[in-house]
Amino acid sequence: MTLLKPTIILFDMDGTIVRHLHPWLLHALERTDDFTHKCAKLFSKIFRRKIDAPPLVEFRGGKRRKLLVHRAMHSFRRKPVEEIVEPCPGVYDVLDLLSANGVRMGLISNGLGKGYGHDVLKKFEMEKYFEVTVFREDITRPKPNPDPILQALQALKNPPEKTDHIWYIGDRHKDIKAALAADIHLPCDIQPVAYTLNAAIAVLEHNLGPDHIFMAWPDMEAKLQKILSDS
Predict the structure, then answer these.
(1) Looking at residues 55-69, what average pLDDT do you find?
(2) Half-sphere exposure of 187 (CA within 13 A, CB side)
(3) Domain 8-20+82-230 has what CATH class?
(4) What are the sequence ranges of the domains in the chain?
(5) How many CB atoms are closer than 10 A to CB 112?
């Protein structure tokens, strides 16, 4: 499947636009997300009922109260964000290119925004690029459910129409699955794009083709330069 000229691009954050200086921390958080999602699916199957949130999310009075695991992780690493992550090499060139060509952008993350995600965007002067941001406290069901993607698109000043082409760029298997799951709910196409190996495996598993895979932002910039100039 050939990538079409994007009018909207949504990005994952951790491992995609920023990389961790201590990768084990990101790995632990990702593994926790994966584990809680599997638990939710298992409980749904056993009890034949829909689980709307991971079992480690506490509810009180029908409302989400605490994100226990995520808050524990962020409390454990009480450091300035610049000591935790750094922008991925070449990402600013891509963001500037998209902005110059009028491509609307949004950010989606399974991580917390308060005390982390918003601080990252502010510290590295990335806020100006994203029309909308969706973090863990903003949603009930995280990726690989399509809800964060659908919520981000709905929050755009002008929600997507039939003529739009959406890319969702992420570095994890669940990013690819979330984009594929969102497709049936949208009036237009959404195309998953894999950044680095973990997501690339998911792209190949779903027969999306190597055009949907890149390993570095300079490669993506070259691809976008061609797509945007040819259209």
Answers:
(1) 43
(2) 8
(3) alpha beta
(4) 8-20+82-230, 23-76
(5) 19
